[in-house]
Each structure stands twice: as structure tokens, then as C-alpha cells.
Design a protein that fits this description.
Two copies of one chain form a homodimer. By secondary structure, the first copy, chain A, is an alpha/beta fold. The first copy, chain A, has a single domain, classed as Ribose 5-phosphate Isomerase B, Chain: A, CATH 3.40.1400. In chain A, 47% of the residues lie in helices and 17% in strands. A five-stranded parallel sheet of chain A has the order 2-1-3-5-4, with helices on both faces. The longest helix of chain A has 13 residues. Chain A starts with a strand and ends with a helix. The mean pLDDT of chain A is 96. At the A-B interface, α2, α3, β4, α4 and α6 of A face α2, α3, β4, α4 and α6 of B.
Chain lengths: 145, 145
Amino acid sequence: MPKTIAIACDHAGFPLKEALKKACGDRYRWLDLGTNSTDSVSYADFGEHLAKAIGAGRADYGILICGTGIGISIAANRYAHIRAAVCTSSTMARLARAHNNANVLALGARIIGAEVALDCIDTFMTTDFEGGRHQARVDKLNTGL
Amino acid sequence: MPKTIAIACDHAGFPLKEALKKACGDRYRWLDLGTNSTDSVSYADFGEHLAKAIGAGRADYGILICGTGIGISIAANRYAHIRAAVCTSSTMARLARAHNNANVLALGARIIGAEVALDCIDTFMTTDFEGGRHQARVDKLNTGL
């Protein structure tokens, strides 16, 4: 059973969202929360949509895309159940899962290309959280601040 | 009058914190919130310390360093007055200031080297927020989620 990934972006991220969904084929089940054109929107709205979808149990993981990945990830990280990781390489995606138990991958469409983004996604979706000494740190992100 | 930058890190970021403070000389005034050794600590605690220092008006800007910049920035971004940007290049640092009005730069000591980090800092500290169409998006990050 493929995992469900919620995906959301702003206008800067729209072309990369479409390219990534197509390139991944049916490896994942997608919950596409938009945006669905290059008309100007706010990354803050789409980071919020994705955070709420994961909070409602509609997806286990999320991918967010804006120009840099920064703005849309800050919006999502306002929610305590979201750990959104801005990654520019599969190395970062691996460590975000292994050490931070990140549940959202944030990508910058103006920073990395589609092949780097695909490697980030595949690494993110296949790396397990290590737990152990990392558990208490992640617990504090969720509840203790 | 040099600007005051609060700086905080975990054990993974400690050597880079020391190197960056030394390399920047007296270009900035530093509010060093630790950690001050390579003994294991939690990035979540140090992200929180920095967020509270900025909230209290002890510094205008912040720099956070952990292994990737991801965990410590998530901790800081739990606070509505913090816009912490994980950057792996000066391009990202420029856009984080120009578009997101980021007030905290988050760096990964296991991802980028000291020269890249220095370029990120100098770009971050010399780039102004563009305002305009970006203002409402930033306002929503601060208050609207």
C-alpha cells in the first residue's frame, strides 16, 4: 500500500509540484492541496493547509514547495505536530528523518532542480527515525516549548 | 554601531560558532547563548533560548547552528516572533531576508563549511526586506495561523 503524501506549494513551486508528482508515478498516493496555477498566492496559506491536513490524519507525510522552501516551512512549523525540514540535498533529507523525525519535506523550486528534489523525496520517504538520544529532543519540539 | 546578533548552537554546531565569531571580528556585537563545549545537549533547548532572547529585545537578529540547521530552526519557529531560515547558500540567505523578512539564520555545521557560512551571514545581515507583496505573507506568519 503506497504511503499518502500531502503536497502543497505556492505559485513559485507549482511547476516543480507537477513535475515531481509525474516523476514519482504511483510510488506514493498524493493528496494535492494546490496551488494549481502560477497565479500569485501566499505560501503562508498553503503551509497552513498542509499542516491542517496532516493534523486531521489525511496524510502521514507532507511535501511543501515555494521559491526557497523557507517561507512555506515556517508557516507549517507554527503547528506543534509539524516538523518541516528545508532540504537542499538528500543528505539533509536523510538527517531530517533520522535525527529530527521530520514529517514534512520543504523544497525550494528556485534553489534546487527536479532531480535533486526527487532524490530528496526518495531519501526522505525511505529513511527511518533513529529514536534513541534523538527522541527527547523531538518530544520537546512537539510539546515542550 | 554594530548590530547585535544572538547566536546559539548545540554540540554539533559549537566549533562552527566559535570559528564564525572569530572570523567576523567586531563587525557585529554578539550575544552568545551557548552551548560552549562539544558535550551533548539538545538543539531544542538552544533554539528556545534564542527565541526568548529575541523576544525580550536582547538582540535584533539571531544565528542558530546544529548539525543540519533543521532541528534548531524548528524549535525557534515554534515562536510567532521568530522567522528562522535554514540556508545552505548566500542565495537562500538573500531571499530569506528579501522575501521572508527572516530574523534568524539557521546553519548546518555538518552540511556547509565555514566560508559558505560566513557568506550566508554577511548576505543575511546586509539584505533588506523588500516589503510590498511580501508584507501580507510575513504578517500571516507572525499572527494569522
